[in-house]
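Exercise 7.
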Amino acid sequence: MSRSKAVKRMLCLALIAATLILTAAPAFAASKPNGAYVVKTTDGDRLIVHPKPSMTGEVARLKAGTVIVYKSRKSGWWKIAYYGGYGYVDPAYLVSATSLPGAKFKSRKTLPVYAKSKSSSRVIGKLTTKMKVSIVAKKDSWVCVQRNGYTGWVSAKYLYRVK
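Solution. The predicted structure, written as tokens, is:
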């Protein structure tokens, strides 16, 4: 095979490889966990939070409806933040907070509601423990909540789902 044909073949293979990588990247990014999740019903049991990514030890048990924040992944376990601390859980018992249309949530304490998903942004209101809100978006440890047409951002780990 001539040198020019070999170069063309190499370029063609490189182009095919680049195309495959670029088309797979959005699917991978979409599957990457991010933000707030809700503990699913666990048949009456509570979700055990472990101190390490294994079945040993226990730091907490979370009720169904508890909102947690994804931090990282290790050996199939998710490191999470929840109201009270950090630990590792099996992600099979979690569902994205934005995948529950119509679900209502309350806060464990009075929270400032921010215009953007960062505490340095402008405070536009407050969320008290008696108010029910819907989660319409999530970003890192923040969720965008909506109540009576007004929306704003709060820290996700202080919320829990109500019936």
